[in-house]
Specification:
The chain has four helices and 13 strands. The chain is α+β, with helices and mostly antiparallel strands. The protein has a five-stranded antiparallel beta sheet with strand order 5-9-6-13-12, with helices on one face. Strands 8-7-10-11 form a four-stranded antiparallel beta sheet, with no helix packed on it.
Length: 305
């Protein structure tokens, strides 16, 4: 939700599964939020996915309702597998048949098949505890966003609590085993931008399969601790050979990036760095010059030798 911006830029990417037996169009709708509950539709349209060429990015510019502007977005039809949301009562890997199917898909004997698929990640977001309160009544309206590369999914919002229980399971296709799972907890803030309550980052290679972990939330820069904890269960299945081959390929560019804003502190720090380097270079030049002018016979003799 981008607030009070005449030309919003979301720059977010979402993956959807298209099943062969259900040929539904892609529906795109733009909303304007009015407070916590009210929303106003500014236009809805459909994209016939069956007519899209494979692996070619298509640019769409759709005119919204009169006076509401235009929406510009990209759609790409490509092989994709493994994106889903479910309740923790029935996650994908709990069913033995589905687990066997995933294990078979990424077994070493099937390495030559589907070379672009490195692995499979399942994340169960159970709950959070002792989150910061953002309302006057000492409560928050938290929801959780899970990101892996360019794939992004989120939970529902639990209103008026600092100890939410989401109990949702998410699955993602792994494209690079060196990727990092980012889990961010936000406070829904009506028609204003959501407040960040805390964040964690977990490298895929450090995941302990099937173990419930309770992690301390950190600030947005991941350098300082925040308030509260989040409880997760993660499981990673991947093909070692495909993961190794993918390591030698360029890292996928992350589409979701923040706008770089002008910052006085950064400018002052860069000016100080340039000044410090310039001073060091000037001092070195003066030192070399002094060696040629024999200001110190011992130093000049050593320099010439």
């Amino acid at each position: 939700n981008l607030c009070i911006q005449p030309n919003p830029q979301w720059r977010e990417q979402f993956d959807f599964n298209q099943f062969e037996d259900i040929q539904e169009p892609l529906q795109v709708e733009v909303f304007s939020k009015r407070g916590r509950k009210g929303t106003e539709s500014w236009g809805m349209f459909e994209v016939d996915v069956s007519r899209l060429p494979l692996n070619e990015r298509q640019l769409y510019t759709h005119v919204l309702d009169p006076g509401k502007g235009k929406l510009v977005f990209l759609v790409t039809l490509r092989p994709c597998w493994g994106v889903s949301i479910s309740d923790t009562d029935n996650p994908t890997l709990v069913n033995q048949d589905e687990r066997d199917s995933v294990m078979e898909r990424f077994s070493l004997k099937n390495t030559h098949q589907r070379l672009h698929e490195v692995g499979f990640l399942q994340v169960s977001v159970l709950k959070a505890n002792d989150l910061p309160a953002t309302d006057i009544n000492g409560k928050s309206n938290p929801f959780c966003v899970i990101e892996l590369g360019n794939c992004k999914l989120q939970t529902h919002t639990v209103n008026r609590t600092v100890n939410p229980e989401w109990n949702k399971t998410f699955t993602f296709p792994i494209k690079d085993i060196h990727d990092v799972v980012e889990v961010t907890v936000f406070d829904e803030n009506g028609d204003r931008c959501p407040n960040l309550l805390g964040k964690i980052a977990i490298p895929l290679l450090t995941v302990q399969d099937g173990q419930q972990v309770c992690l301390l939330l950190k600030k947005e820069d991941l350098g300082r601790p925040s308030k509260g904890t989040i409880t997760l269960v993660l499981e990673v299945i991947y093909n070692n050979v495909r993961a190794g081959v993918r390591t030698f390929q360029p890292k996928e560019k992350k589409f979701i990036e923040e706008n770089q804003k002008f910052n006085k502190k950064i400018l002052a720090r860069n000016i100080y760095r340039v000044r410090k380097i310039s001073t060091a270079v000037l001092y070195m030049l003066q030192y070399i010059k002094s060696c040629f002018q024999w200001e110190s016979k011992q130093r000049s003799l050593i320099a010439f030798l």
